[in-house]
Amino acid sequence: MFLFGASSIKAQWSIKGEATDKKAGWNLLQKFTPEEWDASNFATAEEMEWFNNARYGMFIHFGLSTYIGKDLSWGMCYTRKAPDQGHGPIADSVWTTYPGHFIFDDFNAKRWVEIARKAGMRYIVVIAKHHDGFHMWDTKFSDFKITNTPFGRDYLKEIADACQGVGMKFGIYYSQRDWYHPDYAPVDTSLIMAQNEPPYYQPKPGVTEVRPGSSHQKYIDYQFDVVRELCTNYGKIDVFWFDACWWGGMFTADMWESEKLTRMIRKLQPGVIINNRASIPGDFDTPEQKIGMSQDRPWESCITLCSTWSWSETPVKYL
After folding, report:
1. Across the chain, what does the average pLDDT equal?
2. Distance between CA atoms of residues 74 and 66, nearest Å
């Protein structure tokens, strides 16, 4: 899969039992016992067949940060809520005004899909919400959304309709991380200290259990609402693409109630395939900027066209 828009090379592989390839790096391999693996939920071999045959898709990595030609969210948001560390370059009081500049007069979803078809692509995955928390669809659960911009249209629905109108497989990217939502608190910051290696935090002395913040259950409830909305109002969804990697224990399945959430998605969208970034095995692995390693499991290499995870004036890759 090629993406519009990354300077760092990261990945995520889910492993049943022991790893067979140590070169991937310990923090990139989430190991599950056979019992844990078998207790999870998966697409069937028949449901995976189109994906295994498709080979080539378009990932449209586009959002608020594209306005300034920077990486999505990382190149913009000053606040990065724990367990993420550090700060971005743009003050929250500034970047949160960017929706007011979202005009996008030339957008034509049918044209985008036709470009993908002519390039030989077999599916399209579109950013619905990145870490900045901005909704690229007309959600009922937030005012921080694309239909409250000068553009004023449901960008996600237009692409979904364009894909479905010509038989192009359609997928939705959804980030569980959310540095904007007031209730997002997957770890209680009063219980942790930062560290430089994954999972980037550790319990403070005397703390025996790191729990979510007191508001986080409200965030989980919101997340179920918006994911249900995406799986109900946008026609046939072929891929659901989460993005909060396990990353050495940085994000864990309980933070999202992932088994319950993914089972809901499969019930609402029969035949959907789901990636492995909800800290449960999922249906396929997700290396970035590199080819997948050797194991008997589907994978998708996300490789950007330029050097950032959104379009920028950086050198374009050529085949």
Report:
1. 92
2. 11
Q: Which CATH superfamily is domain 2-304 in?
A: Glycosidases (3.20.20.80)
Task: Spell out the residues 6+ positions from residue 203 whose beta carbon is closer than 8 angstroms to its own.
Answer: 191, 192, 193, 209, 210
Supply 29's token pair. Answer: 């391999």
The domain segmentation of the chain, as residue ranges, is 2-304
Which 8-state DSSP code applies to residue 201? E
Q: Which helix (H) or strand (E) holds 124?
A: strand 123-129
Q: Which two tokens stand for residue 153?
A: 């249209």
3-state class of 5 per DSSP?
A: coil
User: Tokens in use for 3?
Assistant: 């993406």
Q: How many whole angstroms separate alpha carbon 77 and alpha carbon 61? A: 16
Q: For the chain, give the longest Cα–Cα distance.
A: 60
Q: Which of 6, 2, 12, 16 is nearest to 248 (CA)?
A: 12
For residue 75, give the amino acid letter.
G
Q: Supply the DSSP symbol for 253.
A: G
Residue 167 contacts residue 113 (beta carbons within 8 Å):
no
CA angle at residue 44 from 283 to 277, to 5 degrees? 15
* Model confidence pLDDT, tens digit, residues 265-277: 999 999 999 999 9
**H helices, E strands: number in the chain:** 7, 11
pTM: 0.94
CA torsion 286-279-240-17 (nearest 10°) is 60
Pairwise CA distance, residues 273 & 284, whole Å: 8
Dump pLDDT digits (tens) for 130-174: 999 999 999 999 999 999 999 999 999 999 999 999 999 999 999
